[in-house]
Each structure stands twice: as structure tokens, then as C-alpha cells.
Specification:
Elements (H helix, E strand, L loop, with lengths): L1 E5 L5 H9 L4 E5 L3 H8 L10 H11 L2 E4 L7 E4 L16 H10 L7 E5 L7 H12 L8 E5 L9 H7 L2 E5 L2 H11 L7 E5 H32 L3 H8 L22 H8 L5 H11 L1 H12 L7 E5 L14 H11 L3 E5 L10 H5 L4 E4 L11 H4 L6 E4 L10 E4 L3 H6 L6
Parallel strand pairs: 1-2, 1-4, 2-3, 4-5, 5-6, 7-8, 9-10, 9-11, 11-12, 12-13
Antiparallel strand pairs: 6-7
Length: about 425
């Protein structure tokens, strides 16, 4: 089967490689010439466990090629970004999806399958994409098949989860669902769940909204714990020993192109009936301000204004900085007048010697849960001006410093003279 994938980012590239290593011939299309050039030189441009090895297999078999333009295929997969618009509800910007669909029109033929994998607002497939294809002369479900099949993967483990996770197959018609299911059956070992396109869209959004809402509860608890001088992390640990309770962990905010983006699409589609979703977004979006405010309190008695930020990505062990609260916090601290050194072994510009990052620093601020941060070597803390750590991700296990986190931060702040 010949497949064209439009968009070679964190989802489009692994998806393309997956199909290419399962007997299909794939043309991967991206608008960025640098991405296409890098891939055609034999290298992937994202950090993802095991993906380069799979890409090598696809290249050796001759089943993958990268290009700036589509070509005739049996199936087309749309995997382009869907950012937020800058409107009142941060609704879904469909411009990339619309452009991607338009790019396929000269190559579409009767019997083809078009799948939107991009995360999109509810009813987009039926109300936006379907009319575009009908205007081009196709009858959906008869001579052209259209479906929304959202990914549900964990960055850092995408290659495994694309194969083994359940997959929703949301066809615009039952015939569309059947054709899309037949294609995914060639690569997916997990359950293939049949649905309508609109059900698939809303399901994907609610999966991430569920997590965002629960993280908001934990973040709100962290604020309550600081206010009442109660260790919120200890509270969470004890509460989770209840057989029907599973509180999430608080942190410096929510990032990435899922949890920090998708809930807005639901809220924008139904603003009157989504107050909980909207409030959860406000709580999580407020966490960078909360962290900066309390870092400023911790730094009031510091002998200098140097802070070392550990981690710039939105989650641990990957290189993805999209919507990263860590980056936001770093910039906010710099604007507040602090001398900030960024250290992140997964981000090129911040991959420096840990001792150089910590030299003369008055605070290590851990904002990402990279495995490398579980142990902070003595060689790093020994060169600090004040050996103290604020671990917002509860990742640090071995260290030689004064350690604070979102549970016991009140103990440090309480000791700061109030008349300073």
C-alpha cells in the first residue's frame, strides 16, 4: 500500500516509520526543507527512544522517502500541528489541517483513504474536512473514505505505543471506518475501536482534559498546602492509599501539545457547559507565576541573584519544549532580574557541564523530571554559593544540599524574616 503522510513531527514521523516497517511504501511530506534534508541524509530530527533504529530499517528496505510535496497514494495521513488561536477561548487553529488537506487534492483518486490524525476540535472532520472533499467532487463513503484516527501515545515510548495501544477508528460513515480499520490492522496490535469521527475527536480531547483537570486538583492542593503550612505531597501520598483515590502530582505547570492545548478545544466548542475544564486550565496556567513568586521569596536572603534552572522540556527524558512551563519560568525569572543559567542534557543550547551551570548559584530550580536529575553530584553543589534545591517535580533522590519541594516549601519560606 502506498501512503503519504503530511507532517513529520513528533507523531507524523513515528507513524510514517511504523507503516514503512510493516510492508507499506511511505512518502513523508513536510513543509520544512531542513527536516526533509535531514531525513534524506539518514537521520531523524527528534529525540525518541528506538526510532532511529526503526528508521534505519525503513531506509534499508527502501520503503520510506521524505519530500516537500505529496504524490499519488492509496492513503493520505494528515499529522500537522493544531495550535491555539489567540481568541477568548484559545480555540483550535485549523489552518495547517486545511492547508494539508488542500495539498492532497491534486493527488486524490477514487477509492483513496484520507485520515486526519491531528488533534482537532469536535466536529472538524464532518463540518470542515468533509465539505472540502465533497467540493472537489468526491462522495464520502462511496468513492473516497474519510476518518479521524487520533494517536494516544506517551512521548519517549511512541514506537512501542503506536503498535500496542488501543486505537480509535472514527469514520465519517461505516464504510469509512471499515477501510481505515483495515489499514491500521496491518500495524496495530492493540484493540481497534470503531466510532464516528466526531466521537473520536471528542474522545481524544477528553482523554487529555481528564488528565489536565486532575493535575489542576493536585496543583490547587499544593497552593492550599503552602497557605496552611501543610505538606501537600505527604497528603497526596496518604490519600492515595485509599483504594479508590489516585491524586496526581503537582508541578510547575502543564506543557506539550496535548494537555496544555486540547482542553481549550473542548471549552471553545461548548463554552457554556465547560466551566470545570476552563477553571482547570486557569489553575494549571497559573503555576509558573506561583513558582516564580515563591522562588523570589526563597532568594530574598540569597547573597547573589544567580539561579540554575534544571530542565527546559515539558516532560522528562525527551527534547520537546512545546508549551513548556519550564521555559516560561526561566524567561520570567530573567525578566525579574535574576542571573539564570539553563541546564538540560536533552536541549542542545543548555547541554553544558553541570558544574559550569551551578557555579556560584544560590538555587537549583528543578523544573523537569529527567532521569539525569535523580542524582545531583557533589561536584555541582560544591561550587554553588548556596547549596539549596527547589525540586518542583519531586525527582531528586541523591544530593548534598538543602532540598525543598512543593510539599515542604513552606518550611523555608516561614524562616525568611517578614520585614525584609
Amino acid at each position: 500500500m502506498k501512503i503519504t503522510t503530511i507532517g513529520l513531527g513528533y507523531i507524523g514521523l513515528p507513524t510514517s516509520i511504523l507503516f514503512a516497517t510493516h510492508g507499506h511504501h511511505v512518502r513523508g511530506v513536510d513543509a520544512n526543507p531542513a527536516v526533509v534534508e535531514t531525513l534524506n541524509q539518514g537521520f531523524i530530527h527528534i529525540e525518541e527512544e528506538g526510532l532511529q533504529k526503526l528508521y534505519n530499517e525503513a531506509l534499508q528496505s527502501g520503503s520510506f522517502e521524505a519530500s516537500l510535496t505529496p504524490n499519488e497514494s492509496d492513503a493520505f495521513i494528515i499529522a500537522v500541528p493544531t495550535p491555539n488561536k489567540q481568541d477568548a477561548y484559545k480555540s483550535c487553529d485549523l489552518s495547517y489541517v486545511i492547508s494539508a488537506v488542500e495539498s492532497t487534492l491534486p493527488y486524490l483518486e477514487k477509492g483513496n483513504l484520507l485520515i486526519v490524525e491531528s488533534t482537532i476540535a469536535p466536529r472538524t472532520t464532518e463540518d470542515v474536512v468533509k465539505p472540502m472533499l465533497e467540493a472537489a467532487g468526491f462522495t464520502i463513503g462511496e468513492d473516497l473514505f474519510l476518518a479521524h484516527c487520533p494517536e494516544r501515545v506517551l512521548p519517549g515510548n511512541i514506537a512501542y505505543e503506536l503498535v500496542h495501544n488501543p486505537r480509535i477508528i472514527g469514520g465519517v460513515t461505516p464504510a469509512c471506518t471499515a477501510v481505515a480499520k483495515a489499514m491500521y490492522q496491518t500495524v496495530v496490535q492493540g484493540e481497534l475501536i470503531e466510532s464516528s469521527a466526531s466521537e473520536a475527536e471528542l474522545s481524544k480531547l477528553m482523554e487529555n482534559t481528564y488528565r489536565d483537570v486532575n493535575i489542576a486538583l493536585a496543583n490547587e492542593l499544593a497552593k492550599i498546602g503552602l497557605d496552611l503550612e501543610i505538606n501537600a505531597l505527604k497528603v497526596i501520598e496518604m490519600a492515595n492509599r485509599h483504594p479508590r483515590v489516585n491524586l496526581h502530582s503537582p508541578g510547575p505547570g502543564v506543557g506539550g501539545h496535548c494537555l496544555a492545548v486540547d482542553p481549550y478545544f473542548v471549552a471553545a466548542a461548548s463554552p457554556t457547559f465547560s466551566p470545570l475544564i476552563q477553571n482547570a486550565r486557569r489553575i494549571n496556567s497559573s503555576m509558573p507565576d506561583f513558582i516564580v513568586e515563591n522562588v523570589e521569596k526563597l532568594m530574598e536572603i540569597a547573597s547573589n541573584k544567580k539561579i540554575t534552572v534544571f530542565g527546559l522540556t515539558y516532560k522528562g527524558n525527551i527534547d520537546d519544549t512545546r508549551e513548556s512551563p519550564a521555559q516560561e519560568i526561566s524567561v520570567m525569572l530573567q525578566h525579574a532580574g535574576y542571573d539564570v543559567t539553563e541546564y538540560d542534557p536533552h536541549v542542545a543550547h543548555a547541554n553544558i557541564a553541570i558544574e559550569d551551570a551551578c557555579r556560584d548559584s544560590s538555587l537549583i530550580l528543578v523544573l523537569t523530571d529527567h532521569k539525569e536529575f535523580e542524582t545531583i553530584p557533589v561536584s555541582a553543589t560544591d561550587v554553588m554559593d548556596t547549596a539549596q534545591i527547589l525540586d518542583t517535580k519531586t525527582i531528586v533522590k541523591e544530593h548534598d544540599a538543602t532540598l525543598f519541594n512543593l510539599g515542604n516549601m513552606h518550611e523555608a519560606i516561614r524562616k525568611i524574616p517578614q520585614n525584609m
